[in-house]
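Whether sequence alone determines local backbone shape is best considered at the level of individual chains. In the encoding step, the backbone of a single protein was reduced to a row of integers, each denoting a local shape. For completeness, the protein is quoted in full, as a sequence line and a line of structure tokens.
***
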Amino acid sequence: ENIRALEIDTTTLYDLKPSTFNHKITPEKVDFGLIAEEVEKFVPELVSYNKEGQVESVKYSLLSVLLLQELKKLRQEIDDLKNEGKE
């Protein structure tokens, strides 16, 4: 119900900066990912908030949908360029 085309500007994904970081609880553990506060600036739909309204985490499960949308746009650009070369 209420299904619509995706209306998020996926070009903002290029502004995200994958990082490595240490966890606050287990500082010896190094991980990689995105910093939620930075993600909020570019794609607030990818961030979850706590009860106080502060940024809590990145919704990584939704990231793949946005990446797929951007991939489809890139594929279309490639196809257009290929067709341009054939003319």
